[in-house]
């Protein structure tokens, strides 16, 4: 039902030294190690992971946290799941593909005997309530779920799904966003420790650790083989490297470029995958001079991309040539591609007729963004601006911007909506949909250009094949020309694992490889110990 958004070829070509063989055999639920285990005890241990992110919101109907989304993949099923190695979908609570009744009506049957970890049966009412929560007004998921008009109960085992788009080819992908919890769950339940029907269940959650244990009631295709998954929240990169090198973690998220050779020498397998992860620039287009597209373009031409890639990413990133990375199968080289061109930037400032003055560059405390910010300041100051950098946590940064009082000018921050899926409409809707980004943060929603983009995106949903691609190409061109919010750098995601070599405790992880988005994907993975 879907176009493959990240080609298998791109994964194989971009994988690290040991990833290619396992990725070539990837299937729903996790990639397979060639030949399986080579002796030792399979399962019965603890999968240990060093995660780079933290959160206090695990609510499956509203979280955008990299940590919570990643852990919820294992705990809270949807009707469909996404294999994040290639973004293919597979049935979770559904028994198979949706059965099409007419152009906008589908029926989906629930898995026999599916139960939540508290022992209660999964019912159509649970799915309906979970969809209602995820699509409630004001929720960040709304723009991604608008193609789904309703989810209703047909009988005790069957759901009727109606779409706003005839013959909607991306239905399974969008339903995968909706993770199903008991209808009786309260907001506090979902935020602090959600209950799901997946192979794992939450045992404990603190600011420093997250522990999952097997769900004794799980009857799906990917039962847990180990006793526990233990996540250590290690936001400091040095701490993650130390834990991985010593073997206290089997898997390390977000390996920094300077640690790759160190971990390879220790015996770790390294996966480096191109993904949608960006470090983006957002303008407050509600005020001068950012309401002038030429000034926004001038900023994008003023940035020394190569310098940032070397200094902040040690070469493990790329300057964008479109909204999508080149590795995505729906990629189209945009009509406007920004390169470091100071003279062009100055010429655009002159054409705009503005006099650069004092501006505030807000950034989150992401270590790569902080490293980029100094270069961005230098580049903006070279245009005549007097730039002040204001760095804060992500939560504090957006809380300030969401006041909508026009006190900031530019935002430099990380973002990666591909943790929800990878079709171009979803990736554009995250930032450019009818939501807080376009209404308050940017805010671009009142412009004729946004209305044109929205119309094109809606048109593409009703198309397929080359016709749809051509419409998406128009979207990519429009975004590149207007840049209200646009990638500055597209990053590669690097993961380390004790996969081919055992750690100091004599343990390896099997059926695991890194993915191109934030989070760690252990569905189908297990330990092998001596």
TrEMBL record:
It is a lipid-anchor. This is ABC transporter substrate-binding protein. The keyword Transport applies. Gene3D superfamilies: Dipeptide-binding Protein, Domain 3, Periplasmic binding protein-like II. It comes from the Bacteria. Its main location: membrane. It comes from Olsenella absiana. Residues 91-435 form the Solute-binding protein family domain. InterPro entries: Peptide/Ni-bd, SBP_5, SBP_5_CS, SBP_5_dom, TAT_signal. Belongs to the bacterial solute-binding protein 5 family. Keywords: Signal, Transport. Residues 1-26 form the signal peptide. It is found in: Cell membrane.
């Amino acid at each position: 039902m879907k176009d493959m958004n990240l080609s298998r070829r791109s994964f194989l070509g971009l994988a690290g030294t040991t990833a290619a063989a396992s990725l070539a055999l990837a299937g729903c639920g996790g990639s397979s190690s060639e030949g399986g285990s080579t002796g030792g005890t399979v399962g019965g241990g603890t999968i240990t992971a060093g995660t780079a992110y933290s959160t206090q919101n695990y609510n499956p109907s509203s979280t955008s946290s990299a940590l919570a989304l990643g852990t919820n993949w294992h705990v809270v099923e949807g009707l469909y799941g996404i294999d994040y190695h290639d973004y293919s979908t597979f049935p979770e609570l559904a028994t198979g593909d949706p059965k099409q009744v007419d152009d906008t009506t589908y029926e989906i049957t629930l898995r026999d005997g599916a139960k939540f970890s508290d022992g209660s049966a999964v019912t159509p009412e649970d799915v309906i309530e979970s969809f209602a929560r995820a699509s409630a007004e004001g929720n960040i998921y709304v723009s991604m779920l608008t193609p789904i008009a309703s989810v209703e109960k047909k009988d005790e085992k069957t759901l009727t799904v109606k779409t706003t788009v005839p013959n909607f080819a991306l239905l399974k992908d969008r339903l995968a966003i909706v993770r199903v919890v008991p209808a009786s769950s309260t907001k506090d339940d979902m935020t602090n420790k959600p209950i799901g029907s997946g192979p794992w269940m939450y045992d404990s959650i603190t600011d420093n650790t997250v522990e999952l244990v097997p769900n004794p009631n799980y009857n799906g295709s990917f039962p847990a083989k180990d006793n526990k998954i233990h996540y250590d929240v290690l936001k400091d990169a040095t701490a993650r490297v130390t834990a991985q090198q010593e073997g206290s973690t089997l898997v390390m998220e977000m390996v920094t470029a300077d640690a790759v050779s160190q971990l390879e020498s220790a015996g770790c397998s390294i996966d480096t995958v191109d993904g949608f992860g960006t470090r983006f620039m957002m303008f407050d287009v509600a005020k001068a001079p950012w309401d002038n597209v030429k000034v926004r373009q001038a900023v994008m031409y003023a940035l020394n991309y190569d310098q940032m890639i070397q200094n902040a990413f040690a070469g493990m990133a790329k300057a964008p040539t479109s909204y999508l990375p080149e590795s995505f199968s729906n990629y189209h080289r945009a009509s406007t591609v920004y390169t470091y061109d100071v003279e062009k930037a100055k010429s655009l400032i002159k054409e705009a007729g503005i006099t650069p003055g004092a501006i505030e560059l807000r950034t989150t405390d992401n270590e790569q963004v902080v490293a980029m910010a100094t270069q961005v300041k230098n580049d903006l100051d070279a245009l005549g601006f007097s730039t002040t950098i204001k760095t804060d946590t992500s939560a504090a940064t957006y809380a300030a911007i969401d006041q909508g009082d026009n006190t900031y000018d530019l935002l430099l921050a990380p973002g990666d909506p591909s943790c929800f899926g990878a079709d171009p409409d979803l990736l554009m809707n995250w930032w450019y949909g009818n939501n807080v980004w376009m209404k308050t943060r940017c805010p671009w929603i009142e412009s004729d250009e946004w209305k044109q983009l929205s119309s094109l995106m809606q048109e593409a949903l009703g198309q397929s094949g080359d016709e749809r691609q051509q419409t998406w190409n128009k979207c990519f061109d429009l975004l590149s020309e207007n840049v209200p919010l646009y990638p500055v750098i597209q990053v590669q995601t690097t993961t380390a694992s004790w996969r081919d070599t055992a750690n100091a405790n004599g343990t390896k992880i099997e059926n695991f490889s890194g993915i191109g988005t934030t989070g760690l994907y252990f569905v189908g993975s297990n330990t092998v110990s001596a």
